[in-house]
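Is this the right way to post structure tokens for a design question? Let me know if I should format differently. Anyway, here goes:
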């Protein structure tokens, strides 16, 4: 609401000028630029199909922006339910036409049938600053550079074998967390689980990307300082790139030099802080003689391939920023939501503890990754059910159509932003029995009409009712890494401890209010009191 007021009071007069100028051109030329513009209801020049339906109430300048509340995933589902057809609805948010996708068939049309035409990302001035011309993977426009960078990431950095090779580091970080929780358990003190898991995932990611110095390791002051700084920087990225920002809706403002400079000053300052740290990390790695193959971290691997992939230093830094940032928030959000659901559903917690205990060798102090290889179907079903109800990126990452296409009988012009509402897909009562309930069993049996017997996360991108990692060419390449981190921590938290809410709070009172940004997380901290199980 405050954001909309800001638009109206400060930006309105400026926009009016810019848009009046643009509209004169937009009415004469079809938009191929990929930066939006042009009214939603115009028909395509070369197709008789209509545009997807739009809700009434479109306002001058802001379009349908006033219909989108502080939880856009929920507002967009409500709009699509009321005004959409086959889960498709077209909104003009600011100057940009946005195709909102809220049904499995529409998601399949967009992410499989027309995946190629919709495989680019909208241009972002902030991403250009932070990521040196969007030369990372996640926000890079579709094209040869993105193809090469993605190949590097999927083949060398996030492949199943590389993720396996980082196992020891993950187990070591889990051990440090368990020691800390053990102390709290001995003192019968509450643990800030939100902070604990946030720090854990940050440390796992930092260790995998750039080294073994952990925030918890005694004597590694420099490592602690670096990990803390990286966490701050990652949070800064999320704040700058996250949610629905002004320039996302009014890209033509980017052409107003003074205004862009003002809006981007923060991004520039932030990028300078990244540069100092990344340059230091890269220089240290370049000077060391560690082999990329054996126990190399991801910086070692990227540097060893820099020439083969013809990457400049700025491009290396942009790819590394993706590696630090993309997996941190997402994985800690999944872990935290899983703990919340386990507290709210004690029968699920009991069954999960039983599965893990029976598959871990007797007397073993902690669960190892090798113990997770077999017979841990319920653990995976619990994580999947959490991802269904609480996908950390409920609207995936936005795409943009590179050319005109027809989706389910509707014309989608080039330059339309595409928002796939994975949160709505996961909660659609037409796809899921008791859609709002936490029932991991649904992923173990033929049930709910989903025919979904698999607990393989990678199948997620082929089932268009369940898209926490997206699908198609731009699907998340970090599934193995993210799930390995989540599973080993979760298994150990419930294997080693019982968890209760602090005295006086009951499970119905857990506040599930969310905050929307680049990812969606719970607003309130999760405080829980651990009790030692005494294994080993
Ligand atoms: C629970 C963990 C994770 C979740 C739920 C998640 C979710 C997502 C989603 C929804 C997308 C957008 C997909 C689309 O546009 O169709 C994405 C993209 C991406 N993710 Fe993840 N992610 C997770 C972990 C990770 C990790 C650990 C990494 C790397 C260390 C990573 C790296 C990336 C990258 C590089 C992209 C951009 C892919 C592209 O545009 O080609 N993710 N992720």
């Amino acid at each position: 609401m405050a954001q909309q007021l800001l638009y109206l009071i400060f930006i309105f007069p400026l926009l009016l000028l810019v848009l009046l100028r643009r509209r004169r051109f937009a009415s004469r030329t079809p938009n191929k630029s990929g930066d939006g513009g042009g009214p939603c209801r115009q028909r395509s020049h070369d197709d008789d199909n209509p545009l997807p339906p739009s809700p009434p109430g479109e306002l001058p300048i802001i379009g349908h922006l006033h219909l989108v509340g502080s939880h856009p995933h929920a507002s967009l589902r409500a709009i699509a339910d009321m005004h959409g057809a086959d889960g498709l609805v077209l909104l003009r948010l600011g100057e940009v036409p946005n195709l909102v996708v809220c049904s499995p068939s529409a998601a399949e049309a967009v992410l499989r049938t027309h995946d190629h035409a919709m495989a680019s990302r909208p241009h972002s001035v902030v991403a250009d600053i932070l990521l040196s011309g969007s030369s990372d993977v996640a926000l890079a426009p579709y094209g040869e550079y993105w193809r090469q960078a993605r190949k590097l990431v999927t083949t060398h950095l996030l492949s199943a074998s590389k993720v396996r090779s980082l196992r020891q580091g993950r187990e070591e970080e889990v051990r440090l967390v368990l020691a800390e929780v053990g102390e709290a358990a001995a003192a019968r003190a509450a643990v800030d689980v939100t902070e604990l898991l946030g720090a854990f995932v940050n440390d796992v990611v930092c260790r995998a990307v750039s080294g073994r110095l952990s925030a918890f390791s005694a004597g590694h002051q420099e490592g602690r300082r670096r990990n803390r700084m990286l966490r701050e920087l990652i949070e800064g990225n999320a704040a700058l790139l996250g949610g629905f920002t002004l320039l996302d809706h009014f890209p033509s403002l980017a052409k107003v030099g003074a205004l862009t400079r003002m809006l981007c000053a923060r991004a520039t300052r932030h990028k300078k802080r990244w540069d100092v740290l990344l340059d230091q990390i890269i220089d240290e790695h370049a000077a060391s003689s560690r082999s990329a193959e054996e126990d190399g971290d991801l910086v070692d691997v990227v540097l060893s391939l820099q020439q083969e992939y013809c990457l400049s230093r700025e491009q290396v830094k942009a790819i590394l920023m993706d590696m630090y940032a993309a997996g941190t928030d997402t994985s800690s959000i999944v872990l935290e939501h899983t703990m919340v659901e386990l507290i709210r559903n004690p029968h699920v917690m009991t069954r999960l503890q039983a599965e893990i205990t029976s598959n871990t060798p007797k007397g073993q102090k902690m669960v190892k990754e090798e113990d997770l290889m077999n017979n841990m179907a319920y653990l995976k079903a619990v994580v999947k059910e959490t991802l269904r109800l609480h996908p950390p990126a409920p609207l995936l990452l936005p795409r943009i159509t590179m050319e005109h296409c027809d989706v389910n009988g509707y014309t989608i012009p080039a330059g339309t932003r595409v928002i796939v509402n994975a949160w709505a897909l996961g909660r659609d009562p037409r796809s899921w029995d008791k859609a709002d309930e936490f029932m991991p069993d649904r992923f173990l049996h033929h049930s709910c009409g989903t025919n979904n017997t698999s607990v393989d996360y990678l199948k997620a991108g082929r089932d268009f009712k369940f898209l926490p990692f997206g699908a198609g060419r731009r699907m998340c390449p970090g599934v193995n890494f993210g799930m390995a981190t989540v599973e080993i921590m979760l298994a150990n938290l419930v294997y080693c401890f019982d968890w209760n809410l602090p005295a006086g709070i009951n499970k119905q009172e857990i506040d599930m209010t969310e905050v929307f940004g680049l990812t969606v997380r719970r607003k309130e901290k999760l405080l829980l009191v651990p009790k030692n199980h005494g294994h080993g």
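Format looks fine. Someone answered above. Worth noting: The longest strand covers residues 88-93. The radius of gyration is 24 Å.
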